[in-house]
Amino acid sequence: MPRILKFSLWAGFAFLYAPILVLIAYSFNASRRGSVWGGFSTHWYGELFRDEQILNAAWISIKVAVYSATGATLLGLLAAVAMVRFGKFRGRTLFSGLMSAPLVMPEVIVGISLLLLFISAEQLIGWPAGRGILTITIAHITFCTAFVLVVLQPRMATMDRSLEEASRDLGAGPVTTFVLVTLPVIAPAIVSGWLLAFILSFDDLVIASFTAGPGSTTLPMLIFSKVKIAVSPDINALATLIILVAALGLVAAMLLTRNRNNQQ
Amino acid sequence: MATGQNAEFIRIENIVKKFGEVTAVQNISLNIHQGEVFCLLGGSGSGKSTLLRMLAGFDAPTEGRIIIDGDDISGKPPERLPVNMMFQSYALFPHMTVAKNIGYGLRRDGVSKAETKQRVDEILEMVKLTPFADRKPSQLSGGQRQRVALARCIVKRPKVLMLDEPLGALDKKLREETQQELLKIQQELGLTYIVVTHDQEEAMTMADRIGIMNLGQIVQVGPPRELYEQPNSMFIADFVGSLNKFPGSVLGQEDGRTVVRLSEDLVLKIETPFEHNTGEDVMLTTRPEKLEVFPEGSSDQPATQNVVSGTVKFVGYMGEQTNYTVDVGGGIEVRVAEQNHHMSTKVTIARGDTVRVAWPARASHLFAA
Amino acid sequence: MSGQILHAIQSRLGKTLVLLPPYLWMFLFFLLPFGFVLKISFSEAIIASPPFAPLFEYDPDEGILNAVFRVFNYQYLLEDSLYINAYLGSIKIATVSTLICLLIGYPFALAIARAPKSRQPLLLVALMLPFWTSLLIRVYAWIGILRQDGVLNNILLWVGVIDEPLILLQTTFATYVGVVYAYLPFMVLPLYAVLEKQDLTLLEASRDLGASPARSFIDVTLPLSIPGIISGSMLVFIPVIGEFVIPTLLSGESTLMIGRVLWTEFFNNRDWPVASAVAIIMLVVLIIPIIVFQNQQSKQGA
User: Fold this and answer.
1) A and B adjacent (3 or more CB pairs under 8 angstroms)
2) How many whole angstroms from its chain centre is CA B42?
3) Residues A174 and A126 reside in one and the same domain
4) Digit-coded pLDDT (tens) for B187-236
5) Nearest Cα to B27, choosing from B233, B216, B219, B235?
6) To probe the interface with C, which of B55, B87, B159 has the most C CB atoms within 10 Å?
7) How many CB atoms lie within 10 A of CB C82?
8) For chain A, what is the domain count?
């Protein structure tokens, strides 16, 4: 590999990881002032688990992320089947456009438009009554589905079609074939998609801020309100934990797809 | 054929190539003549592709030198070599038109736009692709792509043209046609070809000389006929064409022939250029088409001393020839191939028939077991 | 015969059942809401809940439905230089950041794509990890580095490059650092995807035909990676236009970005109609990039 490529590889990774490492280091700093190293301490982690507000927000975020990931995975799976298996159906262009636009749509636009929808719908038909976990979940499913589809579609497209044909040939109907053959084959991608959706939902600040109600402050909303005012050491600890969870999720997702590749 | 202009046009001297611990090419020395079609034939992992890549400049030899037309090319980058390669995958640039693909190498050599266009047009004419000049490679058939790949190389008038499995991607019908086309251009332009292939039929029909490679070494070099009829080793005999192989032992000499016993009942007299000691264990090899079968009681008389009786176990009608497997007793089965000279639908020999196999003295080779 | 018709109907029905839920969902919760944004952008802010005047009013005396479209929100946006400057600021920051991401990301992606196949999965995980970590947290991490008593200033002081701490935070520089940092993986991933698939014998062919390594890169690698360049650039450019978190945490008051303006109008000023108009104009600005992105996506999907 040319030296310039090697350099950009390591420089790139240094750039991506330096802030994260600094953050993790700070989280073990005993001193309240960020710049001074006051010795190693896990004090801020203890603080974290005594903070009622943070625990509440974390619980709300986890619930929303589980619901959203599940909903987005189901919708993404159906969309992947349609995109890969249905060939050229009527409205395919609009469909694929609707499915990929959320990947790039600025969050403030998605957020404001969904809030205005919810409010107008409440005025017109009385649903959804107020805003909270339900409205955040609907919003998150909407943008997470696009990401799940990005994970599922290539896996579905590269799947050996003859497996499904063999199942049909052996007497199984299309639904049975899908459940007994297709799903197990693409299962690792489904799990990866679910994990990605979970993380995206769990991390979202902007869309949740628009669609949340008074009693449904998510963890990123809480973090944002805190860091806007000042750097607080307990947020370093919280951020480190979130990074850890994300890392575990990603490694799990990668291992799943890798095992599958090895089998083939 | 233009061979002999310069018998040392390409000199490969004690070439060794190691990839870490693995030795891909071990100590090959070889001369290739100007204007010949030289074929490197070998299985996968034989080192033939590594040798080709060194000749084209993609890999540098670990040891040794490669001299093309007096220039030591070892260690020079590919763009500085007077050698061009027709890739197995053709490696046509998908984002360029046919004309752009063909003109690419000329432009890199600093040839002016006008001259490039003129030379590209000439070559397009030559490979009959003029109407396709503005197409992209994806809009061409396999045979057309192959011709673009060839044109892209020969337009640069290279001293040597390397062809990596040139017919590999073509179907059977197209192969013969393409092969003749390749040779025609080679002769018209007086090019030197180095062909790499794993397909012996391709090698036999194209090459003036073949170098057979195994385990990173060249095992035998010679014209196709010599390799087929006078293999210098069991490996070569087995590698080229199909073969009957029987273990046996030498009983002695008789009338200048070597007497070999294959089983209790089967003793053959063989003419071989080499002396074999009495009692030596040998491997006797015979090509199926050198043998003949006669139906029991047929009036034709085998014109050889070695005649063996047996039972037909298998008859395979192939069109141009028929393959027989004959059980001659003692656990020995002999494969015989006969040309179907006459147009006849009558089955003359069927499974279970008793036949005689004529085994001419000059039909076999003996190798040390 | 009737069996075939039945079968065709079943198959049609099955397809509709699969297609309908995602279609309907995205229509209701992605496409339809834009209609409401458009509608409310023609409304007027009032002190009420919700804080905008209805567009349609039923007049019981006349028995007709009156629609009142107020265009003054848009007039206001055009007249007040704050908004125009914010749009221009966003476009400038998004453009420059996209270019920087491309400059850093291309060799980065190429290095991963050309690394030994056995090492690529590990490098990819390393690349994806920041992407899986909250944007908010990653941007927040830069505060600890860039502030006056932060890591960077401390290092520079210690090395002796500077005598007193630089003001890095709340500058346009910090905005660029944050944006490039946050969006770099979005550039690298699509670039890696096209570069990894590239047939390396094409490079050998161009070398064989007389091109130097640099020339081969320009003639072969670069043009064949254009789809990745387009996808990556759009994945950076479009969301950065509406970026809110980064300018809020890292930029100073002078760095105007439209996402932050929209947020302020909506949450702080509670002027929903103006915020809606801001969103509509942002969509108009983004419509061409989004179409380019969509085209690229469907080409690659095919």
Assistant:
1) no
2) 8
3) yes
4) 999 999 999 999 988 899 899 999 999 999 999 999 999 999 989 889 99
5) B216
6) B87
7) 11
8) 2
